[in-house]
Amino acid sequence: QKEVEQNSGPLSVPEGAIASLNCTYSDRGSQSFFWYRQYSGKSPELIMFIYSNGDKEDGRFTAQLNKASQYVSLLIRDSQPSDSATYLCAASGTYKYIFGTGTRLKVLA
Amino acid sequence: DGGITQSPKYLFRKEGQNVTLSCEQNLNHDAMYWYRQDPGQGLRLIYYSQIVNDFQKGDIAEGYSVSREKKESFPLTVTSAQKNPTAFYLCASSPQGGYTEAFFGQGTRLTVV
Fold first, then answer.
1. How many CB atoms lie within 10 A of CB B91?
2. Could you tell me how far CA B83 lies from the centroid of its own chain?
3. Helix (H) or strand (E) holding A63
4. Does the bond joining B75 to the residue before it have cis omega, within 30 degrees of 0?
5. Could you say which of A58, A104, B18, B59 is the most buried, measured as most Cβ atoms within 10 Å of its Cβ?
6. For the residues of B37-74, what is the DSSP string, one character each?
7. d(C-alpha A72, C-alpha A11), whole Å
8. d(CA A63, CA A87)
9. Strand partners, B24
10. Cβ contacts (< 8 Å) between A1 and chain B: which residues?
11. Residue A94 near residue B98, CB atoms below 8 Å
């Protein structure tokens, strides 16, 4: 069974701090990786995707991929209370996506 | 405005009834997906389709059926065989299934009454 593993949290960080969210995946064939943010009662919203080893930055968000370690992370700089949500990690499968169960982030004002 | 539209937003089903959830996209995406989400849980794949007139079962297809007669539309029927259908249902689409990002509709919350 191909899996994506995330710590369910909650991960609590103070406002203005860096939040670090982590994800591991089992399928070495996965080529693409995605981070989604989901507010309570809403649908997931794409934050970032990454295909290559290394870092990819977009505003306050940085995605990191290490294919050798099968590890993906998302860093949120200058965390805001509005960033409080569940963050879902997904890996590409054959024509489909494998989702983790998500990490709940709480940013404390 | 391009996007994915799910309807209705809320749906109530009586025991023994079949209900159909609508999903329409105008993004010209080839791939479409149906996921189920239970409280505090991740997304579980019900069915997916890469092309018109073709679809595959996901991890939890029992008690559900789909059709893909048009590129824009991928309706999901929750049949009476699905014993625990109360959940949040999410439809998604992608230009190239699995390799590029997927985008989600706003979801349908189904409750059995």
1. 27
2. 17
3. strand A61-66
4. no
5. A104
6. E-TT--EEEEEEEEETTEEEE-TT-TTEEE--SBTTB-
7. 17
8. 13
9. B5, B73
10. none
11. yes
How much is the pLDDT for B1? 62
Residues B21, B5: Cα–Cα separation, whole Å: 11
A43 closest CB neighbour out of B41, B90, B97: B90
Q: How many CB pairs under 8 A join A and B?
A: 54
Distance from B106 to chain A by nearest Cα, in Å?
Answer: 5
DSSP state of B30: S
Residues belonging to chain B: 113
As a whole number of angstroms, the distance between CA B75 and CA B68 comes to 7
Which chain B residues have a beta carbon less than 8 Å from that of A49?
100-101
**CB–CB of B103 and A46 under 8 A?**
yes
For A66-99, write each residue's pLDDT tens digit: 999 999 999 999 999 999 999 999 999 888 899 9
How far apart, in whole angstroms, are the C-alpha atoms of residue B107 and residue B113? 19
Which chain B residue shows the shortest CA-CA distance from A96? Answer: B98
CA distance A28 to chain B (A): 14
Contact B101 A49 (CB under 8 A): yes
Q: Is the pLDDT of residue B98 over 80?
A: no
> Using an 8 Å Cβ cutoff, are A1 and A67 in contact?
no
